[in-house]
Design brief:
The protein has 145 residues and is mostly helical. The chain has one domain: Tetracycline Repressor, domain 2. Helices cover 74% and strands 0% of the residues. It has 8 helices and no strands. Helix 5 crosses helix 6. The longest helix is centred in the last third of the chain and has 25 residues. The termini are far apart.
Length: 145
């Protein structure tokens, strides 16, 4: 917290008027990052393109803030604002005719793929957007079966 306070040019104790702890601050940052990722608008036709865009944006945000990836992952089911975004993605799938149970499973697998991709890319210092999107397309095609 002292480093954050110094960066903001305030006293360390001043931060505690706004957050209870360092973990509270980190979770707040992660939530802001998660909710800054655009979700598809209602009525968009190409649901696969919408989901590829969302997960590509999620992956880029996670790569930009590597220290927050594990916090972002924990927030997927826990944060109400993040849960609302996941429900929007589920709605995109169900409106496209994907049964609800399959839509749930598909999002779960897609999130795991994105998380694994970020982890692998960070470990190997290799980021390939086309490779990521090709793999995600393979996963999304399974919804049509």
């Amino acid at each position: 917290m002292p480093a954050v306070a110094a960066e903001l040019n305030v006293g360390t104790m001043s931060l505690y008027r706004h957050v209870e702890s360092k973990s509270d601050l980190v979770e707040g940052l992660a939530e802001r990052i998660m909710i800054s990722i655009p979700v598809p608008a209602a009525g968009e036709d190409d649901w696969r393109r919408c989901l590829v865009r969302f997960f590509s944006d999620w992956r880029k945000s996670a790569a930009r803030y590597p220290g927050l990836v594990d916090v972002m992952v924990r927030m997927i089911p826990a944060s109400p604002s993040v849960r609302t975004r996941v429900e929007t993605l589920l709605d995109v799938l169900t409106r496209a005719g994907v049964p609800a149970r399959r839509a749930n499973r598909l999002l779960s697998v897609a999130f795991r793929y994105a998380i694994g991709s970020v982890t692998w890319e960070q470990a190997h210092d290799r980021h390939d957007d086309a490779d990521f999107e090709d793999g995600l397309e393979l996963i999304l095609r399974s919804a049509s079966r």
